[in-house]
């Protein structure tokens, strides 16, 4: 829980992912196209990955829903939510403070 | 008498058939007279040239050899007698050989016929099986039967068959709705009725995505292949369906005039849609790479290693999420568009889409009839 909170507060856009998950990769590409460099935390590449996974599950996130996206410390959701927000035009608004350009 | 017999014999020989059996019996008629030397010569020639001495064939094909032996005749002069005896022996031998050859031939023919009968039965069985498999796996519905389907499990087969059937119904309903939209736009129906029509059309698209989600769980590769779609539609295939950005390009010209705000919103939607599409496409490229590496891994000559294959199949299942995501993008694009547009404009847009897909299917039919024409 701590680690999750720390990460999501430290970085504007955080994506919890797995290195083998291609949909997670797709979402990170989307953010990059929009001018944001997301912090991608790969659960399978961190020795503490299991704890992070558990913490996320305790927050009510289903592990099968990777990628999990946090913007500004708040949980946005998985790919579906990100895509819907983007088509509505809301995603751009959310990431504006964190755009690197 | 003897000359006529002789003539008969010689005539048969000229036809290639020596049939002395009938003749031999008559030689007994030559009592007292000398056996013509020329006749002996003829028979000797016959034997030497190995012309067939044909037995009269029996119609009922009995196995018992006809017991024909040529008897001796000692009524002639000793010298002639010797020659005749020799001839008789030789002829008997030849007849026996012929009988044996004929018997073997009959046995071979019997075996061959038996083999033909067996093959005929086998062919009938195979035809029946094929018919059964066809009925299980094949259903007409916009696409064709993928040959690989006949090999897979019965359940998957029937689910795919169900999908193809339901998709066929879906297409028919879509064409009906397109016609309804056309007549509604031409007549002056009220806004509420128009709204109901538009909602119905949108929900119909959402029904398709639900259908596809089920099919994706059954066989995602089948869905991705697009065999269930018309051939021209397949040309435009993107992750198991139409491109959302393509959709917007088709209907935008038909929903004009747009307000300034609408123009901006449509522009933004088009851009967001394109970006989302690109992101998914790149994700798919990565999946390609991972799969290719997984299949190529391992030392050469290993053939199929079960654990490796199982891991690869798990990777393939990631494709299901991609198809679902692509359908979600299509759904969201349609929804957003209907939010931006007025009811009237939405109806026009949906009509344009319906017409577009109808034309693609007509193109496919035209194409297949063109390619099946004899050269």
TrEMBL record, chain A:
Pfam families: Glutaredoxin (PF00462). It is found in: Cytoplasm. Residues 13-76 form the Glutaredoxin domain. Keywords: Cytoplasm, Redox-active center. GO terms for cellular component: cytoplasm. The keyword Acetylation does not apply. Gene3D superfamilies: Glutaredoxin. SUPFAM superfamilies: Thioredoxin-like. The keyword Cytoplasm applies. Belongs to the glutaredoxin family. CC-type subfamily. This is Glutaredoxin-C13. It comes from Capsicum baccatum (Peruvian pepper).
UniProtKB/TrEMBL annotation, chain B:
It comes from the Eukaryota. The keyword Acetylation does not apply. Residues 109-136 form a coiled coil. SMART domains: BRLZ (SM00338). One of its GO terms (cellular component) is nucleus. It is found in: Nucleus. PROSITE patterns: BZIP, BZIP_BASIC, DOG1. One of its GO terms (biological process) is DNA-templated transcription. Keywords: Activator, Coiled coil, DNA-binding, Nucleus, Transcription, Transcription regulation. Belongs to the bZIP family. This is Transcription factor TGA7. It comes from Capsicum baccatum (Peruvian pepper). The lineage of its organism: Eukaryota, Viridiplantae, Streptophyta, Embryophyta, Tracheophyta.
